[in-house]
Amino acid sequence: MRSFLKLLVLAAIVGAGIGLWVTAPSRVDAARFDGLTGDAARGETVFTAAGCASCHHAKGAEDKLLLTGGMEFVSDFGTFYAPNISPHPEAGIGGWSFEDFANAVTRGVSPEGQHYYPAFPYTAYTKMQDQDLSDLWAYMQTLEPSDVASKPHDVGFPFNIRRSVGGWKFLFMSDDYVMEAADNERGRYLVETLAHCAECHTPRNPLGALDTARWMGGAPNPSGSGTIPALTPDKLDWSAADVAYYLESGFTPTFDAVGGHMAEVVENFAALPAEDREAVASYIKALPPLGE
Amino acid sequence: MKTPFAALALLAVLGTPALAQDLPQPVKARQGQFNIMALNLGVLGGMARGTVEYDAEAAQAAADSLVAVSTLSQGAMWPDGTDEGSIAGTRAKADIWGNMDDFTSKWADFGEAATAMAAAAGTGRDALGPNMGALGNACKACHDSYRVPE
To answer: Per the CB < 8 Å rule, is B143 touching A60?
Structure first.
């Protein structure tokens, strides 16, 4: 009996050790960025494609480049609020180093070593190219600072234990792509990494991770009623040209106009080069059908 | 030229899904006007995209129809209790009724974009693209705030 207890204690210690190891925030290797210089002009394109402003501008604000934060994400785990990511030294990320920024965007880890909640789509941004990351950082420093304090997340036990997010990342965070690149590397990079389309267009499992088996299969609207439509060919019969025109103009093939959060996404895509919209359209048209 | 367009517009109103039969009349009316808008935007958009050959007369008629819709009085079409939280078959957010001034101003923006389109639509295909852009922005601005996804 005693030896059984000993074994149990040992197992608990080993388990806790593995748990701590698994849930510890992992950081980028800073040497990876040696020799990189950020180009703010190129960074603007990355910023637009990544849709940063769409969630980080204040609700209803005219100036969408003032990154006060504000968008709320209601989930089964609580309500998350997009924080201030303007270059303000206290309220925003003005005091950060580039390494801090890289850890936040590609690892979901704060400068203090805390996990961010995955409402911040670092699970997609983790595949961001180093040069893009560096350009993005250069661009974001050119924006107007806002002194508005970030709103704390409204999350209950046990999800308020940030360490638990480490376990979630261990289970669900991957830097693998879902689709084959085929000959459309750019389209895949835009959809799966920068524009993080799957965050809304793919359903989630009970733990809030994307169900990659139902990739782009449509999902309940995370920010209210209704559903986010499926993009798979069994549900979306638009041509590639229709998709590209929608991303440019916001008009569907029957000339209904885009609405909800997608209106912000279209605004971003409209500002990108036509080839990027076409690349996204070919990616969408290459999705496999899902069926029921 | 007027009659076929009126007939098409009527078809658009009557052609809304069967569901619409059970909706209150003001909701049917406002959805009808959006269908008329979509129909005419389709005429202009098809020419702008190059999927339909440019026809100055048809473009002008479509743009004039958009202006006509923009002048319809909206008051009676948006009674209290017809938001998506209160009845099925609409995607109108309750926020509309809490921000009626903003909603009205966004509708006026559509009117401005439609008027600009009407001034340019007959002058050539090149004028359509930028004006479609402005119309799209007017639609988006309102849907962004006041319409829920399907």
So the answer is: no
